Amino acid sequence: MMMNTARSSEIRSIPSPAHTAHLLQQLFPPQTAIVVGANRSHRYLLDWPSVRPDHILLVDAQPEGLTDIRQKIATAGAWQMRHAVLADREQPARFFRASNPGEDGLVPPHKLAALWPNLHTTDEQACTTQTLGGLLAEPELAALAETRNAWLVIDCLPALRILQGAGPLLERCRLLWLRVLLEPLEDGEPGTTLEEAERYLAEHHFRRIHCIEENHPRIGQAIFLLDEGALREQEIARLTAEQLSLTQAEASLAHERDGLRQQNSELVAAYDALRTEKTTLLAERDALQQDKAKLAAEHDILTQEQATLTAARNTLAQEKTALTKAHDEQAKLASERQAQIAALGLAKAELTTARDKLAGERHAQLEALAQEKAEALKARDALVQEKAALAKARDEQAKLASERQAQIAALNQAKAELAGERDQLASERQAQLEAIAQEKAEALKARDALVQEKAALAKARDEQAKLASERQAQIAALNQAKTELTAARDKLAGERDQQARLASERQAQLEALTQQKTELFAARAALAQEKAVLATAHDEQAELASVLASTRDSQTQLIAERDERILQLEANLQESLARLRLMQDELVKGEAQIELIKDLLLREPEL
To answer: ∠ at Cα 443 (438, 446), nearest 5°?
Structure first.
C-alpha cells in the first residue's frame, strides 16, 4: 500500500503526457517512430514533427482505425501503415473486441473486469499473429529497421509480448513507450505488467525514467530510455577486456615473432653452413674427378704394361719350347752314348774271353804259333790301347756326370734362391695388398683419408713401375743368359731348367700382377662407389638446403603476416580506445541530459 502511495505521488508529480512527449522529442530526437495500437493512441503520440514521413509506421489490428487516422491527420498521408495483430511469435490466436474499444486486443476482456467492472466481450475473431521483427522484414520497411535512435510506442496490451517479438529493432531503439498494468491482475495475463517490462528491459540496458497514469490508476504509460551509461560501461568493460586480450595477444605474438626471428636466424646460419658444405663437397667432387682421371690414366699405363708383360711371357714360352727341344736332343744324345758305352763294355768282355782263349791256345801252341804270338801281342797292345781309350772315355763320362751333378746342385741352389726371392716378393706383394686394403678401409671410413690413400696408391704405382723396370732388366739378363747358354752348350741343360723355373716364376708374378691389377680396379670401383655415395649425400644436402630455404621463406612470410596482424591489432586497439573515449564523452553528455530532464521536470509550474 505504501508502494502504491509512493508510486501515485511520483506519477502525480510528473507534467502532462503531451508536454513530456514534446520535451523528450527535443532531448532525444527520433529518426524513426513506430506506433503499435495507433487506433487508441492519443494525439501527442501521433505528433512527429522532426521525423521524415516515410520513417513513421503505424500498426493496428483494425484497418478502419488506420483509415480514420489518415483522414484526421493531414500529414499522415505519407506515413507507413500496416494492419496486423502482433505478438511474440507467429501463431493462431483469438482477437477480442470489448465493450470499451480501447481494450480491444489479445487479452480477454473478462480478465480486465477487475479494472472495468462492466467490460465484456462483444466479438471474438480467429487470427494469426505476427512479430514486429517479421513485419519490418518487408522490403518497404527495411529502411526503418536499419535506422538508429528509433522510438517504439506500444499503446496496447500485452506490450511486453509485442516487444519480445521486435527482434533486432530493440537494439536500435532509443526510447520505449509502453502501456502496462501498474499492478498485476488476479487472473494474471503474461506480459502486461510494469514489473515484467522492467525486468525484461533491464537485461537490454533500458531503465524507466517516467510513468504516466491513465484514466484508471492501475494502468499507466511507462517510458523507458536506453541507459547509455550502463551500455557504455558494458562496452568499456568489453573494450577493456578486448584491450587486455589484444595486449596479451600482442605480447604472445611478439614473443612468437622473436622466436620466429631466432628460428629464422638459426635457419639462415644452417643455410650458410649447408652452402659452405656444398662448396666443400663440390671441391671434393672436383678432386675425386681429377683422381678418377688419374686412375684412368694409371689404368691405361697398367694395361700397356700388361700387354708388354704378356708379350714377354709369350717370348719366354717360345724360348721354353726351344729349350725343351734342345733338352730332349741332349737326352737322346746321352742315351745314344750310354748305348755305345754298353756296347763297348760287351765288346770288351768278349775280347777278354777271346784273349783268355787265345792265351790257352798260345800256351798250347807256343811253338807253332810263334809268328801268331807276335801278332797276338800286337793285337793285345792294340786292345790295351783301346782299353786305355775306353777307360779314358769312361773317366770323361764320369767327369761329365760329376759336372752335371755339380750343375744340378748349382741349379737346385739357384732354384732355392729364386724360390726365396719369390717368397720375399710374394710377402712384399701381400704386405702391399694389405696396406692397400687398409688404406681402402680408411678411405671408406673417413673421406679426409682419400689424399693419403691416393699418395699410397701413387707410391704403390711407383713401386710397381720400379718392379716392372726390374723385371725388364731381369728379362734382358735372361736374354743375355740365353745367349751365354747358346755359347756354352755343356751348361745348356741346367740353364734351360733355370730359365724354365724363372719363366714359371715370371708367370706367377704376372698372375700376381694381374690379381693386383684386379684389386686396384676393385679399389677404383670402391672409390667410384664412394664418390657416388658422396654425390648422393651432396644431392641430399642440396635438397635439404632447398627445404631449409623454403622453410626460411615460409617463416619469413609468416613473420611478416604476424607483424602485419600485430599492426592491425594495434590499430584496432587505438580505434577501440578512441571509441572508448567517445563513449565516455557520450556518457558524460547523457548524464548531463538526464540531469537537465530532472531539472526541467522539477521546475514545472505544477510542482
So the answer is: 120
